[in-house]
Amino acid sequence: MKRVAVLYGGISVERDVSLASGAKVIEALREAGCNVTAIDVGHDLAAVLAALNPKPDAVFNALHGRFGEDGVIQGALDWLEIPYTHSGVRASALAMDKAASRAVFAAADLPIANGRVVGMDEFEHADPLPRPYVIKPLNEGSSVGVSILRAGDNRRSEIVRDWRFGTHALVEEFIPGRELTVGVMDDRALTVTEISATHAFYDYESKYAAGGSRHVLPAVLHPQARDEAMSLAVAAHRALGCRGATRADFRYDDTQGEPGRLVLLEVNTQPGLTPTSLLPEQAAFCGIDFPALCLWMVEHAACRA
Predict the structure, then answer these.
(1) How many CB atoms lie within 10 A of CB 285?
(2) In a domain, 61, yes or no
(3) Is residue 247 among the annotated active site residues?
(4) Does some domain include residue 169?
């Protein structure tokens, strides 16, 4: 019986999401026959390290956000020489840093939105791009801190006042059209899901609240766009050096007709595993139930030390 430690919770703003993901993973791995130790990660790193002694056969990393998917915990697990799920230090750090991942995508000739990094003091005094545009933190996930500014919107000072994500932000052109996502397991793209949010855009509440969004899979779109989205998801996974499971998010502008324009937004190296999450839905569509998905991740765990 494989001994698996599940790390969940964490100290980022996505703690509640991670607790929900971790609870489902723990249940699924036990159903799959693993001997599971649940470790609620808090501020005391020494306590986490103590909980990993004796060493498990593998760690299932169900942490989200900073310190959990940005290479920090991955580095600690490499140091301890414990195999862990998902991507390693480099890929995790690159994917979490939106400016860095944009540079990687551009170098790989993948389609990205026009944008740039701006200081919040600059943002307060002038629009950095023609409206509409999107402002987002450089190092957060789950759409935390994301806002869309359209013509006539006077929230710029309010956004600066409430900003708690560092001194800089990423600003990108707003891409009209549809929200698409593609799950990847190693070099296999699963399918394309279209996400229709009940709010103005696919924000934090849309992602995790019951009824916050509607998922259509497979997405109904032009075959050329579908094939391109799946190909780009694998290409982005490879460009960052990811392993295990990831999820690539896109905007698809078909407002001028199909096949339309695909724009890669980001790659999530720690896709959500909550009851409303996209990767488990796509895996199930491909015939992989949730316990099998979690067990596949454990079987593909690796140490990069």
Answers:
(1) 14
(2) yes
(3) yes
(4) yes
